[in-house]
Write a structure and sequence with these properties.
This protein has 192 residues and is an all-alpha fold. The chain has 9 helices and no strands. Helix content is 79%, strand content 0%. α1 packs antiparallel against α4, α3 packs across α4 and α5 packs across α9. The protein is globular, with a radius of gyration of 18 Å. The chain starts with a helix and ends in a 6-residue tail after the last helix.
């Protein structure tokens, strides 16, 4: 469990600089340059992510049951995950209504994904992983929306084309992940 916790601290820690140390982050970008900062950020993120994956795998070998979710919540999680995939791609597809209205759809995708997985799983390692991501996403979303209001940030208006492309990509990638990649990468068939 300690490797999982270390990975979460590193990964979520580096991704929390905008929340807790935005001025320091800005000074480092100015000092190092944007490219070097992004490189260091990516390196630390990858280290944290690898530790999360490794630690989660180790923790799964010694499961501690906290609660047994009803089977219906596993199916509900499929819906939450579908929504999360659409929101994730809404952050990348230009001029869609999701981003225009929500402003930070990728952070919302993490919230929806983590919440759905908390409903569907009940082991200690699951609660630690998904609970940490849910808490981080809740705080980041609030801080990001507040920063938008203070800075007067506006987002481009959405278009029907942007919405259709967002939903189509989200559904296709979700289907690939739900019906094939999740079992291959994580060892769990979410559709069973």
């Amino acid at each position: 469990m300690s490797v999982l916790i270390l990975g979460l601290l590193i990964f979520l820690g580096i991704h929390s600089l905008r929340i807790f140390a935005n001025d320091w982050r800005d000074r480092q970008i100015a000092r190092l340059g944007a490219k070097r900062w992004k490189g260091l950020f990516a390196l630390v993120s990858i280290i944290g992510f690898v530790l999360i994956c490794w630690g989660f795998g180790l923790a799964r070998q010694h499961p501690v049951l906290l609660y047994v979710p009803p089977l219906a919540l596993r199916h509900l999680n499929a819906l939450f995950t579908l929504i999360a995939f659409v929101l994730f791609f809404a952050a990348r597809v230009p001029r869609n209504h999701f981003k225009a209205k929500l402003h930070h759809p990728q952070v919302l995708a993490v919230k929806v994904w983590a919440f759905g997985h908390l409903l569907a799983t009940g082991m200690l390692h699951d609660v630690l992983l998904f609970g940490a991501f849910l808490l981080w996403a809740i705080v980041l979303f609030a801080v990001s929306r507040r920063r938008d209001r203070v800075d007067g940030t506006t987002y481009p208006a959405g278009t029907l084309k942007g919405d259709v492309v967002t939903v189509l990509i989200g559904v296709v990638v979700w289907a690939l992940f739900a019906f094939w990649l999740h079992l291959w990468l994580i060892g769990v068939n979410p559709m069973s």
